[in-house]
Write a structure and sequence with these properties.
This protein is mainly α. The chain is built from five helices and no strands. 74% of the residues lie in helices and 0% in strands. The C terminus is likely disordered.
Length: 160
C-alpha cells in the first residue's frame, strides 16, 4: 500500500504520540513502589506528595494550554526543547541524591517537573492534531487519530 502525503502526516502524528503515552505509565505504576521500597518513604507521605503534585498539574494545565494556544504556528519549534525537559526530569525522578536532600522534597519537585514537561508536550501534541487538517474538518481529525486507515478507506467520519 502506497501512502500519500496526508497519510504520512497522519503517521507522523500517530507515531509521535506513542512515546508520550508510554512516558506517563511508569510515574503512576513504578514511582510509589520505588520510593516506598528503595527509599523507605511512608506510603501516607507518598500519597500526599502525589496528590499535591497532581493538584499543581491540575491548576497549571489550563495556563499551559492558553500559552501554547497563543503561540499559533510556533508549536513545532517548541516541541523539541519541551521534550527534553521530561527526559531530564525523569532521570531526576529515578536518580535522587542520596545525601543532603530529603527524598520527599526531591520527589515533589521532580514530580512537578515531570507533570509540567509532560503537559507542555502533550498539550502541544494534541493542538497539533487539531491543526493538522484544520479545526473544523472533523472527519480528517478522526482519520489522523485513527491512523492507519483500513485499506481503501477515505478520511471520513465514522457516522457518515
Amino acid at each position: 500500500m502506497s501512502l500519500n502525503l496526508s497519510q504520512w502526516r497522519y503517521a507522523a502524528y500517530g507515531l509521535a504520540g506513542l512515546p508520550l503515552a508510554m512516558s506517563a505509565l511508569p510515574v503512576y505504576v513504578q514511582v510509589p513502589a520505588y520510593y516506598t521500597s528503595v527509599h523507605g518513604m511512608p506510603l501516607a507521605i507518598l500519597g500526599w506528595i502525589l496528590f499535591a503534585a497532581r493538584m499543581v498539574d491540575t491548576v497549571q494545565d489550563p495556563l499551559l494550554g492558553h500559552a501554547i494556544d497563543r503561540l499559533r504556528g510556533g508549536i513545532a519549534r517548541r516541541m523539541l526543547p519541551a521534550a527534553l525537559l521530561p527526559a531530564f526530569s525523569f532521570a531526576g525522578l529515578w536518580l535522587p541524591p542520596m545525601n543532603g536532600v530529603s527524598s520527599g522534597w526531591w520527589l515533589a519537585v521532580m514530580l512537578v517537573l515531570v507533570y509540567t514537561a509532560h503537559s507542555m508536550v502533550n498539550i502541544a501534541y494534541l493542538s497539533w492534531g487539531a491543526r493538522i487538517v484544520g479545526y473544523y474538518n472533523k472527519a480528517a481529525q478522526l482519520a489522523a487519530a485513527s491512523w492507519p486507515l483500513p485499506a481503501g478507506a477515505k478520511a471520513q467520519a465514522w457516522w457518515a
